[in-house]
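Anyone have tokens for ABC-type glutathione-S-conjugate transporter? Sequence:
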Amino acid sequence: MNASCGGNTPACSSPDWNQTWYTNTPRFTWCFESTVIAWIPCAYLWICFPFYYLYLRYKNKGYIRMSHIFKTKMVLGFILVILCFSNVFFVLWEISQGIPRAPAFFISPAVVGITMILAMFLTQVERMMGIQSSGVMLIYWLLSFMAAVVMFSSKVQHALEREDHFHHVTTYLYASLVLGELVLFCFADHPPFFSKGVNNPVSTAQNTEKCLPFLHFCVSDISSVLHAFINILLLSCSLFLEFIEDQEAPSWHGYFYAFAMFLLACLQTLFEQRYMYMCLVLGLRLKTAVTGLVYRKVSLKTATVGEIVNLVSVDVQKLMDLIIYFNGTWLAPIRIIICFVFLWQLLGPSALASIAVFLFLLPLNFVITKKRSQFQETQMTHKDERAKLINAVLSNIKVIKLHGWEKTFMEKVIGIRKQELQALKKSQILFSASLIAFVMFAVYTLVDNTHVLDAQKAFVSLTLINILNTAHSFLPFSINAAVQVNCRLHSFFFVQASITIRNGTFCWSKETSPCLRSIDLTVPQGSLLAVVGQVGAGKSSLLSALLGELEKTDGCMTMRDTAAYVPQQAWIQNASVEDNILFGKEMDETWFNRVIDACALQPDLESFPAGQKSEIGEKGINISGGQKQRVNLARAVYQKASIYLLDDPLSAVDAHVGQHIFEHVLGPNGLLKDKTRVLVTHTINILPQVDNIVFLVDGMISETGSYEKLLQKNEAFAEFLHSHVAAEEKAGTGLPAYLKATGLPLCAYIILLFTCQQAVSFSRGYWLSVWTDDPVYNGTQQHSELRVGVFGALGVVQGLFNLFVSTAAVLLGGVLASHKLFLQLLRNVARSPMVFFEQTPIGNLLNRFSKEMDAIDSVIPDKLKSLLGFLFNLLEIYIVIIVATPKAAMAIVPLTVLYAAFQHFYVSTSCQLRRVEAASRSPIYSHIAETFQGSSVIRAYKDQERFISKNNFLVDQNQRICFPGAVADRWLATNLEFLGNGIVLFAALFVAMGRTHLSPGTAGFSISYALQITGVLNWMVRSWTEIENNIVSVERVREYWRTPKEAPWTQNGKLQDQVWLTEGRIEFRNYSLRYRPNLELALKHINLTINGQEKIGITGRTGAGKSTLAVGLLRLVEAAEGAILIDGLDIAQLGLHDLRTKITVIPQDPVLFSGSLRMNLDPLNQYTDADIWTALELTQLKSFVADLPDQLEYQCADQGENLSTGQKQLVCLARAVLRKAKILILDEATAAIDLETDLQIQSTLRTQFKDSTVLTIAHRINTIMDCDRILVLEDGRIAEFDTLEHLIAQKGLFYSLMEESGLA
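Reply: yep, here.
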């Protein structure tokens, strides 16, 4: 440098640092300015150039048209290049004139000019690649401007010493032009005019996949830079405290250190917020990817709906959080090592004591954190069980209300919830303590009397220990969180998937015995195969095997071409009739009309308000069972598949409708006559028209062949058929609400505890400052033992307040509030009428019970604890700064007002974004639940891609709303941290100004606390933001507190003095019913009397109002007018449970819950095992249950999927036999059972319920032929009501129904 600067010239002599640092008027030497300072931005750009150019070549977004901003940049750059090289030529001219000039005079402007050309080239490349704004170029121009400012100030100082007008003018112009470039690069250019990328989700996903490693590298790199700034900041703090102690140091040193700390803190803020932003973007991408993967596993049913909803709502969110904190797993050790190095430099070998304490506490912290993780895993297990049970309750709420089981299932949910909260409590009260500061200072001062604890050593060490404590507690948390999320997601994704097989042995799971054995089956192309057998023979299991739903244990299977599946329990989407039938296919009007006619749907469409455009409620709640099945069948027919798998589609429709469907759809002349059809059926009269028959017995094929061939063999099938024929002939507001739930006394107690804790913390810091100010006599400080003892005692008291009392009070108060809010939600949902469940998508309710309750359980208490801690910490910092330097209040007050303004502006936006985001999340859960229920149908149609695309669309919609919220968080945090940095600046400036009357201890006390303010503000903002965002969960939970409620479950005193329902007499008086106020009457002016012990058959065509009669009798919907009297008492005056527990209902769709078979038979646990076995024997289930592995304790799968539909219906019948109520309602109860079993059941019911009033709603006319009287309904009115003989004699509607069934 000496040679280039011209060592012989006075202006270019060797640098004299005494002129720069040890002076009251500092300045750089001309040589240093012309070389080092001028070349720093040049070196930066040339180092970045190769990497940035490669990045630009990779990141091609399409070119940007030349804008005014770009043109101005290029013009200014061109002028700067001319200016630089004019300097070069002018110096060369001066040398030619004999004027001595150092080489630096022409080398520096030449280097700067060439770098300017490079900057113009990169600006042009950025435009061609579609880069609207560039961080690399912005930093270059910022560095160039800072260098220009240094040279400009030097020229101003030397303006009177030397007359060099040309260089002065060029320097002023250069600084102005660089400032112009800097301002221009602060603005983004126009968007690319033409993009070469295609907006393709697949390519986007691939690009995201490629970018993830790069993003993670950038995130890690930013974290490293962030920690470097922290270390430099600590060095600045140490130098500042040295300045306070050195009264001879120039005053400007203090201001320099103050501004250095401010600038470093600002750079730290920028890097940290950029890091947080990149983590959030990466987290959103991972959330999208993982949610998509979870959804793809839904169709395989490898988990329950509750577990899937928890994975999507809770675990995916934890994975997003992990992205932010994961770098702590490898950065924490680096931070710890650096802290120990600094401590060694400050305190020497005494720092070994801190290392010993740290190493002692680290395993303890790991153990505690691991234990917390175990408790959290237990909590998540209970959470999954609760979500699973709640989903079952919500899905089958109608059955639960029919039986009056709300309290029982509420108790089951609350029982699981208590176990969940117990695990949460245990995880919350675990803690870890830090004794590092106390031990280290004690060892340092007591080992050697000559060790003096001054302000620099004490407060810099204390700051280092704070960083160490953060890393100490952060490291095990990060590792265990990573393991916890990984384990749950790993256990979900990497499970054995189902494999499509054929001709072998099958079971529902590898833990259960085979349900199909030695199956050998060939179905010719275009044939109609009927599968028949007794209940539980394995008919539905055979179709499940063909669909790949069962596990293969032996053999193989192939199934060519596309398949369509019609399940026995119709699956209906919450969409229009047309959309349900089209199922994603294009509309073909001609084919659509043919399908509608063939499936006997035309009369129904004409009766619907909007025809084929009419909306069907969730799970087909607003259409009858027969209509659901026909829509189900129409969907399959419309697909034009090659193979049709039909699971008894005729059981839920009237006999004449069933005959119509067989003739026009399934039979030899139907729409599917050229298709391969596998039909499970109990309808015997269609068997002569099928091509082949498979007869199943106990999961094995007993016989196979044509109808005539099997009859000629005269074996098991012939016996089965003859028994059926004989039987037929014989039968003929947010936070205030949360705090209120916590309890106001507990809230006041928590505030008091935090106040005491912070007072102790202040006392501890103040005691340390007094300690450091102790005078030194003969190289030692007096009263060291007393100082150490009080300092340690205050630390212990602070730890007790912080860990045992304050934290436990907040977290356990949160558990209490969560328990109360959950109970209120559960009770209010359970008390809602059926119309509420019909109108509210199940996804909304699952969202409240999973995601929203998880926020109330875990997020709000934790963040409230953090907020209170940081808030009181902030108040302590303010007090310390104002006590040390009262003038600082002039800056703190306006900065605090700005803080509040920013916070208020943000909160209103953030809360609305949170509400919209929560609303956009519910459709995802609804879609998952709907897909789960219809997964067999979706796979059968091979329509997974359309449903996956819809899920992706819903997730994208949710993420579009998440992103603005994340960006708003970063905006607030950045602004507030800058305000915190401003407080650090003013605190340091006022300390520097008042150093003559401030002791070093007081100054160190103030500065060390001020340096914490940025982190405190940052975390306080995060905590407050999380509370504001998640407190919406309380509002959303409380929404259901204001919904309409059904009548009271019990009426106190109504039935205390009388025994009610002894006879079973039912009287309808001008009774009318409508499902909702805006709909037409479903039952119209019904007047009839049913005598006690009378057996009434109820029939009519589909949609006539048969099931609605039962709905009114059980008050699932209240009467529009009129009344129903049972034994002379108006049921409207009774409590709902008083009514419903006296009436037994066997509904149209058999419902079983996940749990033991005994629990499903006796949910209230009222009967002995002997009673249950008797009921099973009466319903033909005893031998089946006796053969099960655990008999009564056999675990039923979700929705009873490991039992056939017929077996499930028999379980429901056994449940009814147990109760032996005075009134029994059978709502199509035997539709899924073969005729022989049906007749046996009817015989059982006649004997067991001979003293009861029995109402039998049926499609099969032969089911009600032996009833005392028969009620025929049509269009919600009574068409006929009389004995069988009189109805046949009248030859009215009932007679025509008999003719259509082939009984007349």
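The chain has a mean pLDDT of 75.
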